[in-house]
Amino acid sequence: MAAVWVICPPKLLFIPERNRDDVPDGAPEVVLDGFTGSPEMHHTFANGLRFGPDGWLYGRCGGVQFR
Predict the structure, then answer these.
(1) DSSP of the chain, one letter per residue?
(2) How far apart are CA 21 and CA 11, in angstroms?
(3) pTM for this model (two decimals)
(4) Cα(34)–Cα(16) distance, rounded to whole angstroms?
(5) Do residues 26 and 14 touch, judged by C-beta distance below 8 A?
(6) Dihedral, 31, 42, 25, 52 alpha carbons, nearest 10
(7) Measured on CA atoms in the order 47, 48, 50, 53, is the torsion positive or negative?
(8) What's the pLDDT tens digit per position in 4-62?
């Protein structure tokens, strides 16, 4: 099964695409909710989702320091 994982703070979404026609097979499913961060870093809060060799889904969080 093909699918897309999307991080859209405050939610982690799963969008199924079972028949590989590049059209979602349903509405996004909320898998996790509650990711929050400060407004100053909201645009870099969570990104870069990747599956690790252990099967877990990893992401990273970046911040920008303004002076």
Answers:
(1) -EEEEEEETTEEEEEEETTSSSS-SSSPEEEEE-----GGGGGGSSEEEEE-TTS-EEEE-------
(2) 25
(3) 0.69
(4) 21
(5) no
(6) -60
(7) negative
(8) 898 887 889 999 988 888 889 989 999 988 877 666 666 667 777 889 999 998 887 76
| Rounded CA separation 35/42 (Å) | 10
Rounded to whole angstroms, the Cα distance separating 13 from 30 reads 5
What is the spatial distance between Cα 4 and Cα 21, in angstroms, rounded to a whole number?
Answer: 13
Whether 10 and 32 have beta carbons less than 8 Å apart is answered as no
d(Cα 56, Cα 12) in Å, to the nearest integer?
14
